[in-house]
UniProtKB/TrEMBL annotation:
Phylogenetic placement of the source organism: Bacteria, Bacillati, Bacillota, Clostridia, Eubacteriales
Biological-process GO terms, alphabetical: threonine biosynthetic process
Domain Threonine synthase N-terminal, residue spans: 3-78
Taxonomic superkingdom: Bacteria
Residues modified as N6-(pyridoxal phosphate)lysine: 102
UniProt GO cellular component terms: cytoplasm
InterPro entries in alphabetical order: Thr_synth_N (IPR029144), Thr_synth_N_sf (IPR037158), Thr_synthase-like (IPR004450), TrpB-like_PALP (IPR001926), TrpB-like_PALP_sf (IPR036052)
UniProt protein name: Threonine synthase
EC number(s) stated in the UniProt entry for this protein: 4.2.3.1
Cofactor: pyridoxal 5'-phosphate
Length: 486
């Protein structure tokens, strides 16, 4: 299996190259040459564990990595660290160290990158730089901590993350991790990181000292491929639970931001998973809803801060990979669309591309609707869902009402409700005004009698390790200081 760029200038790239480089030279995203069918193999392997299915899926793509290495990467990523559970129709993807689904990808990426780097024979130490609005930073820290040959530096906006998210990051253990609070907002932190990546002189200087900068962002193919796995796993569980029979089509609903998670489900469909509709659920930042309804992607609008913050995104980077498929892999067309997006903030796809969008359905949910849904699910099923999952639940309900299509469904449940306890308590009418986040966490536990995940329950008492702060203009300096490069 080789990889190619969506923008057409690179073809025949080995998986190890694509993983280590992250993005193609022409600015495009790496995609596999094809999507091998894997459904029958998985179905026929009775009693397959999550790791077995992970191997069957991932080995179809990363063919230049030895079987033993690949199995090692899967084991080191997931054993005793991550699991998926299916409760009724909810695909719970948050049983990992950070209590959100990004763990599935960010526990695997470092393991595969480490092995890919050895295969290529890259000797430099890779420094992963991330600006975070909360979730990705922590997931990257957990994934890369103590992985040989890597360092992780995370910048977070000092007053721009929740108390729980801050505490998760500043208590992070590991000999190769560094967390810095930025005196500014998320945009400032992100721009700062972009400036570092764009500073050729700095990069050269670091390379001379043996450091290569890289990012763990969601366009890396090593992050995307492992996300296909849990859709197959979820389908098998629906069969085991008697909800569907082998071969029955299901719908999948995904609360979407950067379009990574739902794209993985689409890739799964291409590999034979019996999915009918892929239902793309947005919050009030409904760029994707509008795109699926009109064929026009228009990011010229204000970003709205919602209570599903991990979906507060106007530029869904992974959508480029879908455009590539629905244009029948027409790189020229992709270049045109991306140029238009960069210069005008908008593009419209052709009629023939629109016709290829029939796998998808897009809609959105408001905060009010999400609050009502969280309440409804709790009252009716005695089951807690978080705000992101709430968006998916609302959109699925709207879809069924509108179309009458009530096929069995997998609703991607992307975060533990305990990660956003204040929103959940507010939805359920538990009084939490004037309480700090940890009190709110405890209130949710006491009122709902649901266990707090261990990584959150012991957080308040954990020792603070990272206390560095940096002005926006000193981000480069703080990086060099940490790396000991003066
Ligand atoms: C990142 C995230 C999403 C959005 O996933 P994408 O792959 O960016 O579409 C949804 N929910 C939660 C909790 C997340 O952290």
């Amino acid at each position: 299996m080789n990889f190619r760029s969506t923008r057409g200038k690179e073809k025949g790239v080995k998986s190890v190259e694509a993983i280590v480089r992250g993005i193609a030279k022409d600015g495009g995203l790496f995609v596999p040459d094809s999507f091998p069918r894997v459904y029958e193999e998985i179905i026929n392997k009775k009693g397959a564990s999550y790791e077995d299915i992970a191997y069957l899926v991932i080995s179809k793509f990363f063919t230049d990595i030895k079987i033993r290495e690949l199995k090692g990467a899967i084991k080191d990523a997931y054993t005793d660290r991550f699991k998926v559970e299916v409760v009724e129709n909810f695909l719970e993807l948050y049983h990992g160290p950070t209590c959100a689904f990004k763990d599935a990808a960010l526990l695997f990426l470092p393991q595969i990158m480490k092995r890919a780097k050895n295969i290529i024979g890259a000797n430099e130490e890779i420094v992963i730089l991330t600006a975070t609005s909360g979730d990705t930073g922590k997931a990257a820290l957990e994934g890369f901590k103590d992985v040989e040959g890597f360092k992780v530096v995370v910048y977070y906006p000092k007053d721009g993350v929740s108390e729980i998210q801050r505490k998760q990051m500043i208590t992070q253990e590991g000999d190769n991790v560094h967390v810095i609070a930025i005196e500014g907002n998320f945009d400032n932190a992100q721009t700062g990181v972009k400036n570092i990546f764009g500073d050729e002189e700095l990069k050269k200087e670091l390379l001379e000292k043996g450091f290569r900068l890289s990012s763990a962002n969601s366009i890396n193919i090593g992050r995307l491929i492992p996300q296909i796995v849990y859709y197959f796993y979820g389908y098998i569980k629906l069969i085991e639970n008697g909800k569907v029979k082998e071969g029955d089509k299901i719908n999948v609903v995904v609360p979407t931001g950067n379009f990574g998670n739902i794209l993985a489900a689409y890739y799964g469909k291409k590999m034979g998973l019996p999915i009918d509709k892929l239902i793309c659920a947005s919050n009030e930042n409904k760029v994707l809803t509008d795109f699926f309804n009109t064929g026009i992607y228009d990011k010229r609008r204000e970003l709205i801060l919602t209570e599903s913050p991990s979906m507060d995104i106007l530029l869904s980077s992974n959508l480029e990979r879908l455009l590539y498929e629905i244009s029948n892999r027409d790189s020229e067309e992709i270049n045109k669309l991306m140029d238009s997006l960069n210069t005008n903030g908008v593009y419209e796809i052709s009629e023939s591309m629109k016709e290829n969008l029939s796998d998808f359905y897009g809609d959105f949910a408001t905060t009010g609707e999400v609050y009502k849904a969280i309440n409804e699910v709790y009252v009716k099923k005695n089951y807690l869902i978080d705000t992101h999952t709430g968006v998916a639940y609302v959109v699925h309900k709207k879809y069924v009402e509108k179309t009458g299509d009530n096929k069995e469904v997998l609703i991607a449940s992307t975060a533990s409700p305990f990660k956003f306890p204040r929103s959940i308590c507010n939805s359920l009418g538990f009084e939490v005004d004037f309480m700090d986040d940890f009190k709110v966490l405890n209130t949710l536990f006491e009122e709902s009698k649901n266990e707090i995940p261990e990584s959150l329950s012991n957080l308040e008492k954990k020792k603070v390790i990272h206390t560095k702060t940096s002005k926006i203009e000193d981000m480069k300096k703080s990086l060099k200081e940490y790396l000991g490069v003066e």
